[in-house]
């Protein structure tokens, strides 16, 4: 099977710091790949390197078989890759409607938005419909996260890069996110997802890659990792069963 996204021996330096040390990673089309690891393992750096926000100092990055390592971030985004950062990156002074319109490159006005797709997105995140004309800065943390993901999918994307969407959210809001990701899976949306909530990882992940010290140290089926507590302890220093 040819991977949608392929990283081979990718190294990334940030200033004097060598963060990624030869990352090898494949993301298969139509599946959710979880990127797990302890804090500081290099997960966020991997996402940002894929999008060109930080430049790989060595190695190769391919998307649909074409090299992207030398492309600027806007060029990579135009290939169909969307990024939801850990800080969500929403425009607090703009309304929910305006935030979504900015992300919909093909629509100059709200009336020009793809109505069927908009309704589908709002069906995933019902609160956004309720607060359609509210400034995004007044939303709750969970609602802001919903808006950040909604912006990423308001137009069809080939790959979503999402960094810790459940961080700091109440359990009920996490369940809402799990339900939304389950629907994205049914739509065969390709996702590379960094997540520390292991119940969420188990619920939605197809494949998993575990990072440690800037390297991928394990790849396989998410279900296999979820069922192997000894492997969890060795790779992550904890048991998923404790985090259900």
Tag the structure with descriptive keywords.
six-stranded mixed sheet, globular, ATP-binding, four-stranded antiparallel sheet, 35% helix, 10 helices, cell membrane, 244 residues, alpha/beta, 10 strands, nucleotide-binding
Description:
The protein has 244 residues and is α/β, with parallel strands linked by helices. Helix content is 35%, strand content 26%. Strands 6-7-8-3-9-10 form a six-stranded mixed β-sheet, sandwiched between helices. The chain has a four-stranded antiparallel β-sheet with strand order 2-1-4-5. A hairpin with a 2-residue loop joins strand 4 (56-63) and strand 5 (66-67). Helix 3 (96-103) packs parallel to helix 6. The longest helix is centred in the C-terminal third of the chain and has 16 residues, at 171-186. The two termini are 32 Å apart. 39% of the residues are buried. Belongs to the ABC transporter superfamily.
Radius of gyration: 18 Å
| Helix/strand class | alpha/beta
Ranges where pLDDT stays below 50 over 5 or more residues in a row are none
Strand content: 25-35%
Number of helices: 10
How many E strands?
10
C-alpha geometry? globular
Q: Major sheet: order of its strands?
A: 6-7-8-3-9-10
Quaternary structure state of the chains depicted: single chain
